[in-house]
Design goal:
This is Dolichyl-phosphate mannose synthase related protein. The protein has eight helices and nine strands. The protein is an alpha/beta fold and 254 residues long.
């Protein structure tokens, strides 16, 4: 506020800008890393949002790290490396510890998830009451077991549906895609959850802790392009069993 003789002039600061920390855990993704980083760089955000890109290489043994370093100057990203492979969850938590945004958005490096969905994922945060948004593959991704347009790797979709139904049963909420990579949330909330999972059990643990706190998860439909094991998919049936145990454990243990 400035005073000039008999006048008062009030200069406002305008709407608050929200910073989004995009955390990309990476392990042996030499075939896709350049393309996904370029997509993230070019991604559009809603008005009033800015981004920082944090890449965590989880001790890749192929040329992934070299490609990231070659792109680093152009993309202005923050690169963090693990000396030994610790798992996807550990990579996300490392990125979280270095993040400075108001929000955290998790992005896989395999091109299954399209950064073109960022606008849709972030729009709900214009409502100050929204703390968590999931991008749901299952809102626009029907299961088709037969025919020309059958679902790629339907066993994974069936397993995901089972885990999601188990989540809803245990926690009394209704989500459609618990295992989605696209999880966006308030950074301070994410830190407060004290997630311990180092590997693929990150997804069920963080979801369980969010729902146990009574926090609503807003879901928006996203595009998905599933890949096969031959193309580099890493999650296996053992991870499904661990997910079941994780969901049950955190229902009764903090």
């Amino acid at each position: 506020i400035y005073f000039f003789t008999n006048r008062i002039i009030i200069i406002g600061c305008g709407p608050k800008t929200m910073k989004v920390s995009i955390i990309i855990p990476v392990y042996n993704e030499e075939k896709t890393i350049s393309a996904i980083l370029e997509k993230v760089r070019q991604s559009k955000l809603p008005a009033g949002f800015t981004k920082e890109i944090i890449v965590v290489d989880d001790a890749s043994t192929d040329s992934t790290l070299k490609k990231i370093k070659n792109l680093n100057l152009k993309l202005k990203l923050r690169l963090i490396t693990h000396s030994v492979n610790r798992g996807k969850g550990a990579a996300i938590l490392t990125g979280l510890s270095k993040s400075t945004g108001d929000l955290v958005l998790i992005q896989d490096a395999d091109l299954e998830y399209d950064p073109a969905d960022y606008v849709r994922l972030l729009e709900p945060f214009k409502n100050k009451n929204v703390q968590v948004v999931y991008g749901s593959r299952l809102l626009n991704y029907p299961l088709k077991l037969f025919g020309k347009h059958k679902t790629p790797m339907p066993i994974h979709l069936i397993a995901n549906k089972f885990l999601t139904h188990l989540t809803n049963f245990l926690y009394g909420h209704k989500v459609t895609d618990m295992e989605t990579c696209y999880k966006v949330m308030n950074r301070k909330l994410m830190v407060s959850l004290s997630v311990k999972a180092n590997r693929f059990d990150f997804e069920p643990e963080i979801t369980a802790k969010i729902l146990k706190k009574g926090i609503s998860i807003v879901e928006v439909p996203i595009k998905v392009k599933p890949r096969s094991y031959a193309q580099g998919k890493k999650i296996g049936w053992q991870d499904g069993l661990i997910a079941i145990w994780t969901l049950i454990k955190y229902r009764f243990v903090d």
